[in-house]
Amino acid sequence: MPAILASDVFTPPDVGLFDFPPLWSGAPYWLTKPVVLGLAGVAVLCVLAWAAFARPALVPRGLQNAGEYGYPFVRDQVARPFLGADADRWMPLLLSLFLLILLWNLFGVVPGLQFPVNARISFPVVFALIVYVIKIYLGVRHQGLKGYLTGLMFPPGLPKPLAIALFAPLELLYTFVTSPFTHAVRLFANMFAGHLLLAFFSAVGFWFVVEHPTLPGVPVGILSVVMAVLMTGLEIFIQFLQAFLFTMLAAMFIGGSLHPDH
């Protein structure tokens, strides 16, 4: 019985997809593809913003028109529901968060790039920590340390014994520990899982149709290609949704510190 060659065995993609060595031998350990994509995303966003609004026209066209659709979307759907009259003040932060996260996510479906930057946990963690520091700072500044902690632990209408025994410890744990963690992980996990699924269906399709075609295998490969196409459409929707949810939660956290009564 002939030995099975390693090339005859399909190896599905695994978490090794997310391990990137330095770009060249001797390069700093941190200079990897995700870092370059992250910096490129910032540069692209700055260039697009400059091109759209460096010379604004009374009747918007092209990039300015697209930008003027994006701004009211974030303002009306994210900022105003949680920040009210303070929405415009926080729009630079929220709009930048939304657009950069969305662009970094979309890199996952761009041919040649094909990696969502936020599938590396360090990037969402930085965003989440920025929002976390702003939230705590605003809460203490506007309510005082005692007022901020009291508002967290003893909401109006909740019996004090119940608050002391159950609600206060859970709320403190959530606010100071799990809140930034879950804020970051929600974005990271969705981008991680989506990229892995796309890679899996693409690899199966390539293997059974191109690399190792067989009579029973080709239909499986074609089905996998179709699934990869459908999953790409779904992934684009999820990429947009996760950028929206991350920014919405940021607005909610900031609004909760500015307006604790609401």
TrEMBL record:
**Hey, which family's this protein in?**
Belongs to the ATPase A chain family.
The record's section on PANTHER family has:
ATP SYNTHASE SUBUNIT A
> Which ranges does the record mark as transmembrane?
35-54, 90-109, 121-140, 161-181, 187-210, 240-258
**The gene coding this protein:** atpB_1
Q: Mind telling me which InterPro entries this protein's record contains?
A: ATP_synth_F0_asu, ATP_synth_F0_asu_AS, ATP_synth_F0_asu_bact/mt, F0_ATP_A_sf
Biological role: Key component of the proton channel; it plays a direct role in the translocation of protons across the membrane.
- In what way does this protein cross or attach to the membrane? Multi-pass membrane protein
Annotated source species: Microbispora corallina
Q: According to its UniProt record, where is this protein mainly located?
A: membrane
Work out whether the entry's keyword set contains Methyltransferase.
no
Name of the protein this chain belongs to = ATP synthase subunit a
Q: Which UniProt keywords apply?
A: ATP synthesis, Cell membrane, CF(0), Hydrogen ion transport, Ion transport, Membrane, Transmembrane, Transmembrane helix, Transport
- Location relative to the cell: Cell membrane; Membrane
